[in-house]
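Hi F.,

I've been meaning to write this up properly since the lab meeting, where we talked about keeping a consistent format for the predictions we share between groups. The idea is simple: the sequence comes first, exactly as it goes in, then the structure tokens exactly as they come out, then a line or two of notes. No screenshots and no reformatting. I'm using this chain as the first example so we have something concrete to point to.
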Amino acid sequence: SFGINWVFSLASLLIIIPTLCWIIIPVFYNNNLSNCYEYLELRFNRSTRNLITFAFMFTSFLWLPVIIFIPSLAFAQVTGSNIHLINTYICSICVIYTMLGGIKAVVWTDVFQGAIMIGSVAVVCFLGTKKVGGFNEVINIAARGGRLDVNFTFDARTRITFWNTTISGFVLWTAYVGLNQSCVQRVVALPTLGHVRRSLLLFGIGVFVIMILNCFVGITMYALYHDCDPLTRGYVQKADKMMPFFVQDIAGHLKGMPGIFISSVFSAALSTTSASLNALAGVVYMDYIKPRIKHTERRANLIMRGFICICGVYSIISGFIVEKFSSILQVTYSIGGVTLGSVFGVYMLGMLVPRAHGIAAFWSVVASMVSMIVIVVGAQGRLKYSALPSSVENCPANNTNETFFFNATSTTSINPQTSSANDSFNIFDLSFNWYVTLGTLIVFLVALPLSYILPAEKNFKLDLKLLSPVVHPFYKYKLANTEELPELKKVII
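Output, unedited:
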């Protein structure tokens, strides 16, 4: 619908992996932190930690039903089954193996699910390319249709550009992988920092392969339907259902192939959901329940398993709401935009800015979240992006040569809606791809001046280990006593 610009989020991987390996993860590792939110209490204060854990829970609760609904959507499109019945089955399966197996079950199932995802998408690429007429034909048709054009515009209202996919891609992926408990708990479980860096390198390679395959599937889909768009013709009701329709079209005659595709979608959703459930249960118990009860391992397991069950029921019920969304991708990015920018900002503030203290950090996060909530809510109904043109001239029983333009938000128009350079800018017209970047900027714009204006807490004391190793050479830390010197040297090395 919107061309190849999404692939440029891969450019951010060149910055993401080094950032994780040498700036963020060493801080967690050197401080022996298995809970990434504990860092915020050590670096700032308990209030900042509680605020960010609340943001994590808020985002997870909004994301869970959206992510787990995706395979239900694909399965229902291919089989015609009741989408909510399928959603119930998927939630139940995910809850059971997460609840019984814990983090080990989550990690091992992710290994198999990852292999299924890559393999099935590769097969879909091959079959789609073959049906179009070969790789060169796919590229030629996509180029003629403008799907390979790169958008370098600086207009912040444009849905997807080189700039917002690259910059926001860096913030989004860094926050999700390096500052999200569901990912951090796996990384810090590795025996050495060297193992961590190798695993992150493999992660980068895996993301690169999956993203390239997914983007190629997109342009292959366009090449196949460039003169008979199923969405415009009404063969498909929503843009989110195009992929299952495409797979059924190119591989429906091959026994088992639609099933392989469905398994890949299931794998992607279950992998993300199981990790989120496991991390969410752990954070809720450790931060909000454990301090208020007498802790035992048996009691902790029972409480966390019960919480996971509640999340499963919530996801099933919320599926009725998710079904009404016009674009799952846009909804996902909007949800992340509320919190991920402030999360990334406050961690970077703590690791890179020695001057920052707890009071400044807390109020900068509040300012960022409140601002983003206002923007996201205010943008509802305003963000309607016109897709690139698509034709129906060669559809069966269609003798017209008229070319139609469709909008992925289900708005159909003869002329695409584009922002004029002379139009006045409104913050609510900001592309959802900029949300996480704006959230990060607000944190720094508020925290930096407050760190100088407001005094730090009386008990505030900065430990060098809580700063990123890249900052150590530029910061002369005043030791409380000379006995700390050996530990300091160890950290710097």
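Notes:
Residues 398-421, 477-493 have pLDDT under 50 and may be disordered.
The domain at 5-460 is CATH 1.20.1730.10 (Sodium/glucose cotransporter).

If this format works for you, I'll send the rest the same way.

G.
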